[in-house]
Design goal:
alpha/beta, 6-stranded mixed β-sheet, Metallo-beta-lactamase, Chain A, 33% helix, 258 residues, Clx_II_MBL, zinc
Length: 258
């Protein structure tokens, strides 16, 4: 399994997931389909699937166009999310295979949108799994609660995504990492892992490089929203439960002018 990121719009990421033995590929959130189709052609790939994380235009807005460009391509999207151009609706636990060795598991991770899906992808034995989290989990952050509650985001982040294998590579929908880590330091000023990752992320961005992927393990060490489970973090924001802390941290982030 190989994964390529394709920067789109101002700060979005689309992705190509490749089954190396068959050269079959899936694209995640191809908002600028021409870029993805060109990249696929350059690598000699056969595009089979679109995996849409949620219905917002900057993720699903290229679906109709890619269907015109690649006749017969299947477009997957959450059953509750009314995804543009969707041909195959998925629910939590649905499985899709790609080529010979790539397996995709749909995880319902609602809150940012009602039907948001994260895609957990595994390849051959010995390869690290990956998870495409759209706008639910960002590196050191999470999406705004547009269509859901703190309870749902807690379930999506800390239970559903938090229970994935720790080495799972996290590929999110936007390059927001530097700002997210700067905010994380306002929650936990003494968190050395956050300090170190911020300094690394700033260097990456200065060099014009991406900050993806992260890992589930790194998120548990540096992401204040995933760390809302920790009594220490709850105390820092004056709360006594993970859900309350998550709600408070989101409110703080919404009002933060970093």
């Amino acid at each position: 399994m190989k994964i390529f990121h394709v920067p789109c719009l101002e700060d979005n990421y689309s992705y190509l997931i490749i089954d190396e033995s068959t050269k079959e590929a899936a694209v995640v959130d191809p908002v600028e389909p021409e870029k993805l189709v060109n990249a696929a052609n350059e690598h000699g790939l056969n595009l089979k699937l679109v995996l849409t994380t949620h219905h917002h235009w900057d993720h699903a807005g290229g679906n109709e166009k890619i269907k015109e460009m690649v006749p017969g391509i299947k477009v997957y999207g959450g059953s509750l999310d009314n995804v543009k151009g969707c041909t195959n609706k998925v629910e939590n636990g649905d499985k899709v295979s790609l080529g010979a060795d790539v397996n995709i598991l749909a995880l319902h991770t609602p809150c940012h949108t009602k039907g948001h899906i994260s895609y957990y992808v595994t390849g051959k034995e010995g390869e690290d799994p990956a998870v495409f989290t759209g706008d639910t989990l960002f590196i050191a952050g999470c999406g705004k609660f547009f269509e859901g509650t703190a309870e749902q985001m807690y379930q999506s982040l800390c239970v559903t995504l938090g229970s994935l294998p720790k080495p799972s590579q996290v590929y999110c929908g936007h390059e927001y990492t530097v700002k997210n880590l700067q905010f994380a330091l306002t929650v936990e000023p003494d968190n050395v892992k956050v300090q170190e990752k911020l300094s690394w992320a700033q260097k990456q961005r200065k060099a014009g490089l991406p900050t993806i992927p992260s890992t589930i393990e790194e998120e548990m060490e540096t992401n204040p929203f995933m760390r809302a489970e920790l009594p220490d973090v709850q105390a820092k924001v004056g709360c006594q439960s993970p859900v309350e802390a998550l709600r408070k941290i989101r409110l703080m982030k919404d009002n933060w002018r970093g």
